[in-house]
Amino acid sequence: LAKVTQHAAGREWTFDATAFWQVHPGAADALVNAVRTMLRPKSGEHLVDLYAGVGLFAGSLVDALGPGGRVDTVEADETAVKGARRSLHDTPTIHIHHDRVDRWLRRGPLRRCDLIVLDPPRTGAGKEVMERISALSPRAIAYVACDPAALARDVATARQHGWDITALRAFDLFPMTHHLETVGTFIRA
Question: Known catalytic residues?
Fold first, then answer.
């Protein structure tokens, strides 16, 4: 397959042309900056990047976690996972898992983490995933949403488990359409 190279968050990303990447040229940096600002990662923390794609959020936040930090990415799409491995091979604190998010969480390899980035598909994360990430007791969750209805459903589930959405930013990355990309932060109520 043809390879694509993109530059975002101070890194170079190389992946197969069929892997997902935001079409707006400024989208990756805008979303990364919003997530970084909302999560405020600290040295030594453990970040879990769910629906990680080619590893954009993991790769852009790993430096803030320092050498004592850890990142686990989970992605079901094999093409995206190969891209993440290609682009992040030089970062030993990032651990890339090729699996469906719901299945990986159900298997329970992880009992706790400090931060979660959640960037689900248009259908949202869903009740099971929201319940399982709640059980990990992170100090904060950044949710990147491409569908406001799916985000609303997941917010409702999070609220049932003691989480409040404390910040929300919308990005018009698809001008002249009704689509908005949204980044929200969840904190324990």
Answer: 146
Lookup: tokens for 84 = 């993440």
pLDDT score, position 118: 97
Give me the torsion for CA of 90, 95, 99, 105, rounded to 10°: -160
Q: Which residues contact 100 (CB under 8 A, 6 or more apart)?
A: 76
| Residue 7 to residues 14, 15, 131, 170, Cα–Cα distance (Å) | 9, 12, 34, 23
In this predicted model, what pLDDT tens digit does every residue of 12-45 receive, in sequence order? 888 888 787 787 677 889 999 999 999 999 999 9
How far CA 136 is from CA of 57, 115, 150, 159, 188, in Å, comes to 19, 9, 22, 15, 12
Three-state DSSP state, 136: coil
Within 10 Å of residue 68's Cβ, how many Cβ atoms?
A: 10
Q: What angle, 0 to 180 degrees and rounded to 10, lies between the N-to-C axes of helices 56-65 and 27-39?
A: 40
How would you label 75-106 residue by residue, b for 16+ Cβ within 10 Å and e otherwise? bbbebbbbbbbebbeebebbebbbeebbebbe
Question: At 46, is the secondary structure helix, strand, or coil?
Answer: strand
Closest CA to 186 of 125, 126, 122, 115: 115
